[in-house]
């Protein structure tokens, strides 16, 4: 299954919430800056300002699928479809 249909469903849910509510409900995770090169498989797009707040919309089309982008005020700008959760690669714990 692709990410577009589940993203539309998730955007409908999120659009009913404030930014803070969506973060508290863990629908959006705000990272702030773009991840360092050793923590991502993506590249910072040249047309996106360095000072935006990067975030992901979580659990799109399954547990690990995310959509990465940036937030300006209360608007989320979709930049990457991340089916394998490689926008912000977490260090493995307890392995």
How is this structure best described in words?
By secondary structure, this protein is α+β, with helices and mostly antiparallel strands. It is 18% helix and 26% strand. It contains 2 helices and 4 strands, in the order H-H-E-E-E-E. The radius of gyration is 13 Å and the shape is globular. The chain starts with a helix and ends in a 13-residue tail after the last strand. The mean pLDDT is 88.
Quick overview of this protein structure:
The protein has two helices and four strands. By secondary structure, it is of the alpha+beta class.
Structural topology:
Blueprint: H1 4-14, H2 19-24, E1 28-32, E2 53-57, E3 66-72, E4 75-82
Antiparallel strand pairs: 1-2, 2-3, 3-4
- Please tally the helical runs, counting DSSP H or I stretches of 4 or more residues: 2
Structural class: alpha+beta
Q: Please state how the strands of the largest beta sheet are arranged side by side.
A: 1-2-3-4
Query: In percent, how much strand structure appears in the residues?
Result: 25-35%
Largest sheet: 4 strands, antiparallel
Into which percent range does the helicity of residues fall? Answer: 10-25%
User: Which regions contain 5 or more consecutive residues with pLDDT less than 50?
Assistant: none
As a whole number of angstroms, the C-alpha radius of gyration is 13 Å
| Helix and strand run | HHEEEE
Choose one word for the global shape: globular
**Would you tell me the overall average pLDDT?**
88
Describe the oligomeric state of these chains in a short phrase.
Answer: single chain
Q: How many extended strands?
A: 4
N→C terminal distance: 30 Å
């Amino acid at each position: 299954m692709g990410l577009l249909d589940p993203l539309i469903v998730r955007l409908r849910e999120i659009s009913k919430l404030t930014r803070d509510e969506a973060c508290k409900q863990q629908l959006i995770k705000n990272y702030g800056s773009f991840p360092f090169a050793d923590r991502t498989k993506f590249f910072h797009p040249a047309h996106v300002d360095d000072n935006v707040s990067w975030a992901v919309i979580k659990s799109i089309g399954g547990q690990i699928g995310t959509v990465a982008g940036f937030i300006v005020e209360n608007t989320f700008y979709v930049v990457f479809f991340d089916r394998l959760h490689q926008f912000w690669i977490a260090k493995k714990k307890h392995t």
